[in-house]
Amino acid sequence: MVKFKGHKDIAAPAKFRSEELSQGLRIRHLTMMGLGSAIGAGLFLGTGVGIRTAGPAIIIAYAITGAITVLIMQMLGEMVAARPSSGSFSDYADQAFGRWAGFAVGWLYWFMMVMIMGAEMTGAAAIMGTWFGVEPWVPALVSVSILAIVNLVSVRGFGEFEFWFAFIKVAIIIFFLAVGTLLILGLLPGHRFIGTENFLGNGFMPNGISGVAAGLLAVAFAFGGIEMVTIAAAESEDPQRSIHTAVKSIIWRIGIFYIGSVLVIAFLLPYDLIRGANSAADSPFTMVLEMAGIPAVTGLMEVIIVLALLSAFNAQLYGSSRLCYSLARQHNAPAIFRQVNHRAVPFAAVVLSVIMAFTSVLLQWWNPAGLLDFLLSSIGGCLVVIWISIISSHLKLHPQLVASGELTKVRMRGYPWLPIGTLIAVFGIVILMLADPNARFQVFSVAVLISTLLIITAITMSFTRREGHVSTMLTVHDHSETTDK
Questions:
Q1: Would you call 403 exposed, middle or buried from its count of C-beta atoms within 10 A (0-12, 13-18, 19+)?
Q2: CA distances from 143 to 130, 163, 265, 318 (A)
Q3: Which fold has domain 20-467?
Q4: Nearest CA to 162 among 240, 175, 154, 256?
Q5: Distance (Å, whole) CA 357 – CA 241
Q6: What are phi and psi of 471, to 5 degrees?
Q7: Which of 173, 377, 399, 439 has the fewest CB atoms within 10 Å, i.e. is most exposed?
Q8: Based on the number of CB atoms within 10 Å of its own CB, is 209 exposed (0-12), middle (13-18) or buried (19 or more)?
Q9: pTM greater than the 0.85 cutoff
Q10: CB of 48 within 8 A of CB of 277?
Q11: pLDDT tens track for 171-216
């Protein structure tokens, strides 16, 4: 058992030490998992929102958020390579600031994943229900059951499933970029060279700096989900090499896919036609492919959107179960969740995530007044808190890693100025959220959630301390009786 210098030993008790996760994931699994988590239905349905808000200048917003994500992932990658953990940023918050931080950050991210799972499955089930003429709960039940089995069988099976899920999405995006480029250049039959008549028709920045600021907020969380790779790294064959390769490849690929898609849409569609979409038929991706004469394009996009939702659900199911397992290892969740089956899968943690996924789906269909809006609106705020915890943990742990010689070739350059600059940029996003009436509620929602978690943390830690005190007193008493005898 390794004890890290500068923080308490958080390994599991002896009777659980043999209950370790497997190392069945490969680099290609991690890479596709990161792509699958970050490329969801939001890319296909929500890209138009940012373009409508900021015009072609939305590329600046993507570049800024992409740079922030790159820096955060480099910080996280440094810590993961040095100290692989299925708890990832929750574990590092624990090491840096104590159990209260690990508890709050871990359960906050777990809650966020559960809510995202519910939203994703609700969207996918609604589309599939129309395909087969059944109530949405039927495809939801079937889909969750299949993905639960995939996650329970083995981590290698999950990795393969997620690899092909994400591969299909990536193939479609590459196809879209290729077709879009041919349309722009006028190389398809019946099409002329378009040039910049749409791209600059209303100016590069039609709504000025304020439009770019609003656009920045609209795309701030577009790259959210990449951090899932660091949770999975603990189950890879070579965590240090895996995280180094996966993070680098994921970042540049996602950058190309997002910015490339924005460029194609902005070049081909008049500004007045670009907007957010609630269905595949309204998606700017569908409009572009229709221009190229692709048959049954609406149906094709529906299939892609469903696959994107199911892929993201699958990744979130995996991530939430591993995070629950890690929280149990830190004694921040019941001990049953740190036990694994004969395939080295945390069975109880996966079952809990499946139950909570069903609960989240039912909550969205029940939709009690105000509650669902409150919970879903907190998701963006949760991600900001996770980012802040990653940066803060890195600022605290980096000197320890250097002093103990744990630092690997995977490292964040420019310490401490780049991490501090990244932290300032993230707080800039918070200021934008507070200035925007629609986003302000996100800050309020996540503040309530964090306050609740901190109260639960205080109660839990107080109970644990009392339990430990009683145990110590009993041990002393038993020792005293033995001595008297």
A1: exposed
A2: 15, 17, 32, 15
A3: Amino acid/polyamine transporter I (1.20.1740)
A4: 154
A5: 33
A6: -60, -40
A7: 399
A8: exposed
A9: no
A10: yes
A11: 888 999 999 999 999 888 888 888 888 888 788 888 888 888 888 8
